[in-house]
Amino acid sequence: MEKLKFAFYWAASCGGCEIAVLDVNEKILDVVAKADLVFWPVALDVKYKDVEAMPDKSIDVCFFNGAIRNEENERMAKLLRQKSKVLVAFGSCACDGCVIGLGNLWNKEKIFERAYFETPSTNNPQNVTPQTRFKVAHGELELPEFYDTVKTLAQTVDVDYFISGCPPPVPRIIEALEAILNGKLPPKGSSFLLNKAVCDECPREKKERKITQVKRVYEIEDDFKTCFLDQGVICMGPATRGGCGAQCLKANVPCTGCGGPAPRVPEQGAAMISALASIVVDPKVIEQIVDPVGTFYKYSLANSILRRRVIK
Amino acid sequence: MKEIVINPITRLEGHGKITIFLNDEGDVDEAYFQVPELRGFEKFCEGRRAEDLPIITTRICGVCPVAHHMAGAKALDAAFNVEPPEPAKKLRELMYCGYYLYDHTLHFYYLGGPDFVVGPDAPPEKRNVLGVIEKAGLEIGKEVIKHRAYGQKITEIIGGKATHPVSACIPGGIARPISEEERQEIERMVRSCLEFAKFSLKLFDDIVLKNTAYVDLIKSEPYTLKTYYMGTVDKNNKVNFYDGNVRVVDPEGKEFVKFAPKDYLDVVEEHVEPWTYVKLPYLKKVGWKGLVDGPESGLYRVGPLGRLNAADGMATPLAQAEYERMYATLGGKPVHNTLAYHWARLIELLYAAERALELVTDPEITSKNVRNKPGKPGEGVGIVEAARGTLIHHYQLDENALAKKVNLIVATVNNAPSICLSIKNAAKGLIKKGKVTDGILNMVEMAFRAYDPCFACATHFAVGQMPLEVEIYDSQKRLVQTLKR
């Protein structure tokens, strides 16, 4: 049997998805036995021009991580879509925009102002900002254009499968690779995480689920076993897709939602608000929640119905 | 595969890009190193809950999330005016040592080390971890994979997740104590890592230091920069990754300043250039003089060599012996040879293992006393030594403990001006009379790879062994050559 051709690519991301792939450790040897890695900038010296020269649909599966933050990210998403039979949105940034998507609460101008003018360590009396084209003494230098709005991969090109998580849990990466290598692909649009919520994997004891007062995680005397929602601490477990083994909960930290929307939930933040509405004893309790956008949409703002703040 | 492209390539392809301009004689006039992306954490952290900051900022970098997590944790301790109990500090530091064990191993064997182990002039397809395995043997390759994984496992046990840990998001402590079984598991891994670190130094000795050509290369002019150095030290001025004051030494090695984290704004400023998204830090009191070295220029270097130069030694015996040997070999302090970063990194790997062993065998390490009650929210600065250098998180919180303002000076960013200059020097040293050979590419790359630059951190983009493009222009501004990898 001819070996499959795999590609891994990063756009606006942190590199954690690459590390998660390395964390499959010796199992990577099973992958390279059955598939050739034709493009993986972190590990292989294959150049963008080589990708451009590949025939269309010649890559069997491309795992694409990172959000679409600038011109360059968008161009590579379109190129890899064209060259790949199957495109997998890999990790929270590609699936949901991740925390970078919180940049959609502002725009390019505000983000530049903070980074290049306001920060107290910055000394920039002439208000210099990076330019897409800039003439220097000897010629011209270029930078890719920074966009106002972060987009997910599926908002940019057609995506076949999703494996969310920040980063995707290693056991789920292994399952996804095995499914692909054995030709057992699920229906288009499927997720490679599990069809359950983080709550379903959490070892903490759920009691009445009645919130009388919202608390912050550092304000409670955690007994290490009672459900955080029962203790009044916002935990995104009910609205978040599982498959991570509730690792954060096992470290006594509430779920912050990196797995993206739970199965059959179109909107993670709305699902969490809905879950809370059914367990608070008084609507006034809701008012105690601070930073609702950052709490409910920390990883999914770019992929939500809100998507971004209106630019005036 | 290395490739020479003669046709002009004018688009940036989202990776580090070096542009070299030649003068009429065909010598290097100017070289630019650009970082092509920004993600904007300092803006979108505004308005977030305090306890989310050490979790959101881990996403600056998936290679060194533990460093951001810990700088965030310490910034929150300061902002809430609370000291963690001793066992919590020790657990945090143990997790931090696990991170160093993983990260320095990753760099030496996967990213930077292949230049030495396999050789700087080896074919590019061999200059990777597989080439290292080929040269050193498959058994060694398995050891590399195993010990990198051990480092990750230590973080996972204490931090909850290996990539993007969560447990230190609690100001005044850590959310999770460890059990005796977990302690034993960590101790077993740490002991193995200690032997592995000793082995790695021996490998460096055998392959690099016993080869005079390599030693000459380390000492050669194109790889030398005379800068200031910065690193965190303990009360005895020994290297410390997790806690202490930050010390800066001048290019002669004399103490220039030692400051508490809260005073960082007195010492560091950042300059903005229109041709790169990364900001360029310098010592405020010396000033920004452009991309030049020497005592009149505010450039300083951080990371393994920066730390060793800025300190008086290592706090553990085996690492201290190696520290003394390095300075004896390279001609005393400070060492200005950029390629000595690799050696310094291995000395730190040994220190991380020795220190981790002290911590994991400390009777307090399994204590359940891991949290103190936070005070009222305010302002705080947290500094740790990330693998790549001094890392600063500065948070201002409002009365609801939401972030008002966030400022971040990230490890690789501190080195950004020196990386630009190292590349320029390497290019100047290697390109003469317009003659450019294929070999220049890796030699120029080595100039920046020594820093283990993590541009996911820097502007929050690519990691590790980045694809690289070098464009060379003649004095008529014509593109004469493009080298890519």
Describe this structure in words.
The complex is a heterodimer of chains A (312) and B (485). Helices cover 28% and strands 15% of the residues of chain A. Chain A has 312 residues and is α/β, with parallel strands linked by helices. Chain A folds into three domains: 4-99 and 151-181, Rossmann fold; 105-147, no CATH class; 194-312, no CATH class. In chain A, a hairpin with a 2-residue loop joins β6 and β7 (139-142). Among the domains of chain B are: 3-37 and 414-484, no CATH class; 83-222 and 337-372, Orthogonal Bundle (Cytochrome-c3 Hydrogenase, chain B), CATH 1.10.645. A five-stranded mixed sheet of chain B has the order 1-14-13-2-3, with helices on one face. In chain B, strands 6-5-4-9 form a four-stranded mixed sheet. Mean pLDDT of chain B is 87; it is low at 1-14 and 455-467. The chains are: A alpha/beta (312), B alpha+beta (485). At the A-B interface, α1, α4, α6, β7 and α9 of A face β3, α1, α7, β7 and β12 of B.
Second rung of CATH, namely the architecture of one domain in chain B: Orthogonal Bundle
User: How many strand elements of chain B?
Assistant: 14
Beta-strand content estimate of chain A: 5-15%
Q: How large is the radius of gyration of chain B?
A: 22 Å
Largest interface: A-B, 82 and 104 residues
The CATH topology name of the largest domain in chain A reads Rossmann fold
Oligomer: heterodimer
The structural class of chain A is: alpha/beta
CATH class category of one domain in chain B: Mainly Alpha
Mean pLDDT of chain A: 92
Terminal CA distance of chain A reads 57 Å
User: Largest sheet of chain B, described in full?
Assistant: 5 strands, mixed
Average pLDDT of chain B, rounded to a whole number, is 87
Low-confidence stretches of chain A: none
Q: Order of strands in the sheet with the most strands of chain B?
A: 1-14-13-2-3
Helix content of chain A: 25-40%
Rg of chain A, Å, rounded: 21 Å
User: What characteristic shape of chain A results from the CA principal axes?
Assistant: globular
CATH class of the largest domain in chain A: Alpha Beta
Number of helices of chain B: 16
Question: How helix-rich are the residues of chain B, as a percent range?
Answer: 40-55%
